[in-house]
Amino acid sequence: MKPVVPQAFFVFFALTIGGVAEPSSHGNATGRIQDGTPPFDLLLKGGHVIDPANKLEARMDLAIAAGKIARVAKSIPVAESRKVVDARGYYVAPGLIDIHTHVFAGGPDLCVVPDVYAVPNGVTTVVDAGSSGWKTFPEFKEKVIDRSTNRVLAFLNIVGAGMMGRIEQDENEMDPAAAAAMIKKFPDLIVGVKTAHFLKPGWTAVDRAVEAGKLSDTPVMVDFREVPGRSYEDLLLKHMRPGDIHTHLYAEHIPLLDEHGVVHDFARQARRRGVLFDVGHGNGSFWFRVAVPALKQGFVPDSISTDYHKRSALLPDAGMLTTMSKFLNLGMPLQEVVMRSTVNPAREIRRAELGTLSVGATADVAVLKLEKGKFGFVDSGHAQMPGNRRLQCLLTVYGGKVLWDPNGLSWPDWRGAGKYKVID
Ligand SMILES: [Zn+2]
Questions:
Q1: Residue 94 Cα, ligand 1 centroid: separation in angstroms?
Q2: Is 374 among the domain residues?
Q3: What is d(CA 241, CA 113) in angstroms, rounded to the nearest whole number?
Q4: Percent of the chain predicted with pLDDT > 70
Q5: For residue 21, pLDDT beyond 50
């Protein structure tokens, strides 16, 4: 059936290919598309590009072809792309990388569906932090990773069954050789080792995780709790290696501050020796009373992550954009917030090819809007902090494909779309 569309729309859309109109202010600037196929599939026009990996922050056009970043330049003609998105007034960042999530088992009250969480948040890579172990990873791969719309990677729990069944206290299940063997079997998917929730005395969990890290040449992510004879200081200075990651940096149970609220010197020492610090917001691990003084003293996180699971998803709403917005409102410049959510986590998991808008890199892109207004944010203790800025994601591009576009920025106006069909 022929749609009823005013003649003017036919004329307007006749100037486009792929069904997406160039924004009206550019509509007549470069004329019609010439014969032949445009070289680019998608052009983000006029956005404020933040690409910390390349120390780039400027108003730029960004073109994508064949799933890769094809060109970043001051001006790319609209005629060179099949689709054009007007990104003026928005920020164009690499797809976000959340290195602490839970997207497999761990009990029915824990995991979330990776793409349902990630894509609306501008996250193109989620890393599951130890929900699966060396016994259960193949099931995780088959049931979740292989079926996810976006990239899912994993830290492998040093405990064989991972977080399933709450057996993370059983030392007999902590097998460095078996963990390393599984990591070597899936080097494209498993980025390191995780230890968490160990409440018994001693260093077995941490040391065996580090041993697995050594055997597989991968970093270890540590979720830690002090018990008598096991101190945070010793963890950072004696047990973790340079490149290993302490997550839950601003948790109330982490003694980052001394009794006067001053960041312990041993934490700075650990940073100097190469230990990395991650947010891991979670249900119980982000407290303004720890984060605010630490940030004031310059003790910033290397990476911003969410520890996203069912409980943290509900309250305190620990999604990536909310967590990034908290840091913005705590005074961290936007460029740094993006850096700690893209290139830094990419390097921590040794995937430097991710988290960048370099030409040739896979085209993972987040188009973000910075909203200004009266907002509030909560921490794990359910205390509140007022704020005036909040990030929103308007477009998530994964490997060149638009996965999230709630405002239809990349879609044609329905009145000129012709006989359109259901989206794929
Ligand atoms: Zn976690």
A1: 24
A2: no
A3: 32
A4: 89
A5: no
> Is the confidence at residue 7, as pLDDT, over 70?
no
Domain assignment present for 307: yes
Stated as kind and residue range, the H or E segment containing 326 is helix 320-329
The answer to whether 81 and 90 have CB atoms below 8 angstroms apart is: no
Q: What DSSP assignment string belongs to 286-312?
A: --HHHHHHHHHTT---SB----B-HHH
The pTM of the whole model exceeds 0.85? yes
Q: By residue range, what is the domain housing residue 344?
A: 94-369
269 CA → ligand 1 middle, Å = 25
- Asked whether residue 214 falls in the same domain as residue 323, the answer is yes
State in Å: Cα 283 to ligand 1 middle: 9
- Rounded to whole angstroms, how far apart are CA atoms 405 and 411? 8
Using CA atoms, how far apart are residues 31 and 252, in angstroms rounded to an integer?
59
The per-residue pLDDT for 377 is: 97
Domain count for the chain, please give it.
Answer: 2
Stretch 18-24: mean pLDDT: 33
DSSP assigned state of 246: E
- pLDDT mean over 377-404: 97
Q: What mean pLDDT is predicted for residues 344-373?
A: 98
**Centre of ligand 1 from the C-alpha of residue 221, in Å:** 10
How many Å lie between the centroid of ligand 1 and the Cα of residue 235? 18
Same domain, 107 and 23: no
312 close to 306: Cβ distance less than 8 angstroms: yes
Which residues are within 8 A (CB) of 121 and not within 5 positions of it... i.e. 6 or more apart? 96, 98, 319, 320, 321, 393, 396
